[in-house]
Amino acid sequence: MIQKTTLSFFKVFILFSIIIFTKSNSYAQTIVPQQLGYPRICAGLIVDGKPFNEYNATFSYVDFPAGTSFEVELSDDAGNFTTPIATTKISVTENAALQQQTIKFGVPTNLKGSDTYSLRIKSNTSSPVYSIKFRNSQNVTNFPVYYRTFVESFYINNRNETASYCAGGSFTLSIDNPTPGDQNSSPVNYPNLKYKWFKDDVLIVGQSGTTLVASSQGVYYVQIDYGGCLDENFSSNRVTVSPSNGGSAVTITSSLGNPFCSDGTGTILTATSGNSYVWKKDGATIAGAVNRTYSTNESGVYTVEVDFGGCKATGSINLSSNGFESSIDVAETTSINEGETLNVTVTTDAANPDFQWFLNGNAISGANANSYLIAVPGNYKVTISQVSGCVSSKEFNFKVTGPSKPSSVIQNIIKLSGLNPYWNIPDEYKNANTNVIILSSNGEKVLDVVNYQGDWPQTAIDFKNVNPVYYYVIKSDTGEKKGSITVIK
User: Fold this and answer.
1) Alpha-carbon dihedral sign for residues 151, 190, 145, 128
2) I need a surface site. Which of 198, 282, 295, 464 has the fewest CB within 10 A?
3) What's the half-sphere exposure (Cβ side, CA atoms, 13 Å) at 465?
4) Same CATH fold, 413-488 and 30-147?
5) pLDDT tens figures, 51-78
6) Which of 146, 309, 298 is closest to 231 using CA atoms?
7) Sheet holding 267-271, edge to edge
8) What is the pTM of this model?
9) Per CATH, which fold does 157-243 belong to?
């Protein structure tokens, strides 16, 4: 009985040894990552005009068939591979017979940055095989991985170096975003970014957004939180925040000085930094003027009420322009009769002004004085230019009409050299309910307006060998009239 038991045990032992020996002489598919040549991945910095995002991962492998391909897998931001992130593969060598490969890869541009990412290799086989985690050049398997989507300078508090708050109140600092339509103009346009706020160079714990409520005196600034890649990050400007002096220290500055010389866009008024603003001009609230700055071309007393958070204060500026004032002694529309003339005069306080008069958009030769004697109806304009000191100009537009024809007659001849070189129509048709159309002899539409005011033609007409003939259609509430117009010199 004892001999049989011993023999059976010996047979089992021999069989188990054969199995172990057989397995020990066969190779399981294995992937062995080599140590990385870098301590972290900090992609996105501009190199040679484009964002850098190319990294190498080298590994060895055993017992994979020829043609097997591999890829790099990136863990989640906590270093786990439960839901790995596929990386952007720039290139991959697919010849498994090499027994070693180097894959060039890039990280996703919308990556949520973290200091605890991991990398591994995955085989693209029917039953994927995974390597252990790569070790970086510092011999750790979890290390910083970031894609720095914003690597430009940025600002807070509209670039202003100071801000005030009321006792018991606060002031909100925020990252500037002057042109939201231009994504690269501000980090605010990248929602995946986080931030670090500092007061007196000490990190403010728990503040990672685009704004910070400051309720104590100090010097504040913010950094984009690129974690372990912070060594190449840009910080904002520094802002000194302090309590206001009883809520009375509000000043307004003019970008062009005071008095100012308008450059066409006006001067920009800027108030002391606060939480909200209400602008007034000569005591009247300016609709929509609720920002820290206000642009204007007009002189006047401007005031702004600034809310510092808990208290309000008001500042003012008596803004004046060192431009010039002008006036003209003619109405916007004036009529003259046959044989009449009209003398129009401009009055101005401009220094050494230049004048130029225009008829129907064309400069009148020699009309360079402050007055002009008008004998021909038409559309007139005069420009006044101050060419020294504060260089600027103004213009006045007005219209001179001739005598109206009798209501029963629609003019069918235009004499360009006459007193009234325009096609006139009875006053009953000069309204917004009447449509006037003029066609050339070729059927080309040369005029199609409502409320015609007797000012056609306004451009030169080519006579060639004959007097040109045009055709008109007048559509009014009382019906439609048609006829011809002959133009003579």
Assistant:
1) negative
2) 464
3) 0
4) yes
5) 899 999 999 999 888 788 889 999 998 9
6) 146
7) 252-254, 267-271, 293-296
8) 0.46
9) Immunoglobulin-like (2.60.40)
